[in-house]
Amino acid sequence: xxxxxANHIAALAAKMAKPAVIAAYPITPQTTIVEKxxxxxxxxxxxxxYIRVESEHSAMAACIGAAATGVRTFTATSSHGLLLMHEMVxxxxxxxxxxxxxxxNRAIGPGWNIWSDSNxxxxxxxxxxxxxxxxxxxxVYDSIIQAYKIAEHSDVMxxxxxxxxxxxxxxxxxxxxxxxxxxxxxxxxEFKSLWKLDIENPVTHGNIIMPSDYMDVRYSMxxxxxxxxxxxxxxxxxxxxxxxxxxGLIEEYMTEDADYVIIATAAIAAEAxxxxxxxxEKGKKAGLARLRVFRPMPYELLKYxxxxxxxxxxxVGLGGVLYNELRWMGDVYGFIAGLGGKDVGYADIVRMYExxxxxxxxxxxxxxx
Length: 369
Description:
The chain is of the alpha/beta class. About 40% of the residues lie in helices and about 20% in strands.
């Protein structure tokens, strides 16, 4: 058991996954991840090529090039860094490269804001990356280890983004159980790529293809994303048997008899669990379904009669991102809250629940003039 920040825990998890190539470019609040990895490489704890690139676009390009040669890779970013990667984020997924990346969620400017919301990662929702959202430092560690096994599965071969809240987790120390390296090696053996660029056996990769073939590529990627649901659950169950902490696509809490089920991700979901406890004490049958995996979206697991969706991301002109993906499923109330790091505590979530009971929804925590 160690006590450390989520960023240092993320670096430790990446180290123990034994990537051969790490591409690094600093950006707040992610920087201490790649700084810690640089220390691991410098002091000989990690045998990896550490590439200091000139931009986040180059960081993802370096991971793409390395992954295409059949080795395990890692990088990390935040906010505008992820946006600068956008072209290469698409490329990595369409090339079916099992890259693992951490995104420390941070709001988009202007105005400049270094605090958390999910617009950066959720803005990449159509790129073909699996997206996992962690609610604790322990889950940050566990999710990164699992991410490699998911990404490298023969039915998937897609990149994985592990996201968590800037400062709320990234710079906050929590106790984390870290298994022995030998146990991680048993769970996550050496990567055996299904394809790779090899000068002894040359292939054409990423060349111009005709429309009919391009359609096949997109279809295959979509089918792999659907298959990833089963793989994520299987990997999470296997991890639980080995390390005592199981994971799935969602985490349910007191949903069996709930009148309303709160849907939330990341740190807000952790607060929502406390809110459910308070609401139960007040005689209200509240429940929580923490959405751990946003892509692939586990619609089939979210069949509740009434849902209250809390978004820390907004699609401008449409509304909350999660809300608009789920509103067709029935009686759904949406709240946009916590943008730019605005605090959302359990008392706020209790208030949202009570507003939803009255048929109200919308932006929470701002003064409407």
